[in-house]
Request: fold
Amino acid sequence: MKQKIVLAAAVLIGLLAAFVTGSYISAKERQLEEEKAAFDRRNRTVEAVVLVKSLPAGSKLSMDDLALMKFPERALRGQVIRAEGNVALRLTGRTLAVGVEARRPLLWSDIEGGAPEAGGLAAMLRPKMRAISVSVNGAASVSNMVRPTDHVDVLGTFALPSKTVPGATELVTLTILQDVLVLATGQETANTYRGGTGSYSLVTLEVSPHEAEVLTFAEQMRGRLTLSLRNPEDLHYEKELPQVNFERIRASLEGLNELRQKNILRKK
Reply:
């Protein structure tokens, strides 16, 4: 009986020791995780915009002048231009208010006019460009998933005089503009957009004065404008995009599907 009591006591002491050891190890692991998290917070790095080479005041920035570098977050000031959105595009064409050394974090105060949000939408425009808003619905803007800084093609569908039947009209779809920068969707710009898929009925595009005339005329024709979303790194320009009507669709469907199948097989 005494041996059983001693054995039970030994087992109990072993279990207690295991529990204490496990609790100690868990506490140490939590402590290490907290210390690691604190270390990461203290030494967190973020990407900021820098100049590839030193430039004097009055220099106009180009894409080739800009690069990204990592810096400790705690060492950066509030005016530092961080790698958020398509920041390089927003800086292209802007003028330096002061001389800036290479590889030093670029500040909005270094740029004439400061941060784009300080001057509203107009300050986001590149030189010689204009902002124009076009009406779209959800389907015409890729289910309202087109966002500021995206690039799109603008297509239009119109009722035009028929080339074959005098006095009649026919629906025609054509690509009006390719690779257009989206400045705003509704009231949201790149500076105010915080994610989400809110609805909107207007999209503001950055265009040249000539393109602004074309879009304005297209809207006055009471046609339907549609946005086709692009990959922002895709700079390809389609030189031959014919107008599409019913006859064109009927004549080219087979060829389009054959081309699609070839492209699918090529990707496999």
